Amino acid sequence: MAKLQDITPKHWLRRFYTLFCIIIARFIRFSRVLKNHATPSSRALKLVLLISRPQDIDLFIDIYHHARTRPDIEISFWATKRALTHFPATRKLLAEAGIQPSFHLGHGNLIAATLKLLKIDAFLNTVESTVARHKVPYLITTIANASGVHTYTMQHGFENVGLTYNDPDLGHEVRFAAQHVLTWGPVNQLPGIVAPETRRKCLAVGSPKVHLTRIDKPRKATTGTADHPPIIAVFEGLHVDRFDDRYLRLFFTDLQHLADTFTNLHFILKPHPGIVKRSRIHTEFLYSLRGIKVL
Questions:
Q1: Domain 12-35+44-211 is in which class?
Q2: Which stretch of DSSP H or E encloses residue 203?
Q3: Where in the chain is the domain with CATH 3.40.50.2000?
Q4: What is the DSSP letter of 124?
Q5: Is 146 in contact with 19 (CB distance < 8 Å)?
Q6: Which residues are CB-contacts of 118 (< 8 A; sequence separation ≥ 6)?
Q7: Backbone dihedral angles phi then psi of residue 10, each to the nearest 5 degrees
Q8: What is the pLDDT of residues 21-40, one digit of tens each?
Q9: 174 pLDDT band (50/70/90 cuts)?
């Protein structure tokens, strides 16, 4: 938790702004209840998916396509302004998928977002939490709760802070505002570090990346085995502000040694898609690897 002296006037202003939005949402919501403005059961359920990082598109695309086949669901995308400006790949991937976000969300237009929330039924995002870099999704989810919207946060990767691990640099008390947290694996297999409050919110749904699953069966060689070598996939999340040059050298040197030693294996390296700033040595190592396919 932030210390009182660490909270700047900007943070106080944002907290007040968010509280004001929550009050507006609750006032309008309860005014409708008093006037008995029930939602017509015949209309389509309105679902909003929030894009906060380029990799969210992989998580949401199958949900989007499936929902479009359902006449009882009206689906739309929002995107954070940070995702559109900080991650250049976001606009490109959205365009390739034929998706045009209907709203660009930021700290400055939370009131406009609040009024839009009052017209939707469910809100789904991936990186909402009390972590500072997840603050805008966290705030809008909090406001959505006050608006009477059903809120969901989906696990965004095998590793998800506050869900599969804790990081002292991000705080030991990571929490989620959503009413439900959708996990890729069984809830009873979550580590012991998960807060009881978070664990109670969790629902196991599996990974939604159906489009990345091979449908066709691999061809068989005459020996009866697959005609490609075993694949070793490595995820690289070496953030420049957490790992020094010595660690980088060790990581890439060891990885290259593995690839050189086990030539009967096929190595794939997947850099963290959220890393947009790398040191010179990081970049040099990444693109000088031999016998390792970098995605």
A1: alpha beta
A2: strand 202-204
A3: 12-35+44-211
A4: E
A5: no
A6: 25, 28, 29, 147
A7: -60, -40
A8: 888 888 877 776 665 555 56
A9: confident
